[in-house]
Amino acid sequence: MRERQQLPVLGQPPPERADAARNRQKIVDCAARMIAERGAEQLSLDEVAREACVGVGTVYRRFGDRAGLIYALIDERERHFQAAFLSGPSPLGPGGTPGERISAFLRALVDHFFGQEELFLLLEKSSPKARFAGPYHVYHAHLTALLAQLRPGADQRFLADVLLAPVNVGLLNFQRTERGFTVEQIKDGLDALVREIAR
Questions:
Q1: Chain segment 102-144, per-residue pLDDT in tens
Q2: Cβ neighbours of residue 17 closer than 8 Å, sequence gap 6 or more
Q3: Contacts of 138 (CB under 8 A, 6+ apart)
Q4: Using CA of residue 63, residue 169, residue 147, residue 100, what is the dihedral sign?
């Protein structure tokens, strides 16, 4: 199973043979080291296979393509992030009002993307559909559930897409580098959007 198929659901990775687990970890560690040394833009599955001393076929079977390998690199942080908004302390986790939780979630998502900005940017470039695959489904379901409490009569699925639209790494990067917005200004703008939807 490719990593991008594992990521959307919070929990433990599926069981695997010990040798497969070792190879997977070796490949992921090698890719992380290469990115730290050379940057994410130069990441190539063929070169990762050479550096990790495994067959190219092993890398492609395990991860499918470069996007699959990037998902594996962000997987651990993604699982921690999902745990925080699904079962962590309030207001990000359960306990706050729907509006508070939505704002806390969007603010945390901004931090999550900026924390691994280079990888998320590479993911979007590697696969045009990557932005709407994997974790997007979890984020969307979470917001839809909160919006059902906040705006019972509205089309919550549409509003969840509206809230997620400005929180993509390409736009966030543009806002910070080209528009000169600070991270706090971006978060404040999202808070204002949530308030408008809540009215």
A1: 999 999 999 999 998 988 888 887 776 777 877 899 999 999 9
A2: none
A3: 8, 9, 10, 82
A4: positive
User: What is the radius of gyration, based on Cα positions, of the chain?
Assistant: 18
Strand-pairing partners, residue 94, are 96
- Rounded Cα gap, residues 89 and 85, in angstroms: 8
Residue 33 CA to residue 21 CA, distance in Å, equals: 18
* 3-state helix, strand and coil shares in percent for the chain, rounded to the nearest 5: 75, 0, 25
- Cβ-based neighbours of 133, under 8 Å, separated by 6 or more: 4, 127
CA distance 142 to 135: 11
pLDDT score at 64:
85
Residue 53: what residue type? C
pLDDT digits (tens, 9 = 90+) for 166-187: 999 999 999 999 999 999 999 9
CA distance 55 to 85: 38
Task: Give pTM, 2 decimals.
Answer: 0.77
Distance CA 44, CA 122 (A): 12
Residue type, 102: I
CATH class of 3-198: mainly alpha
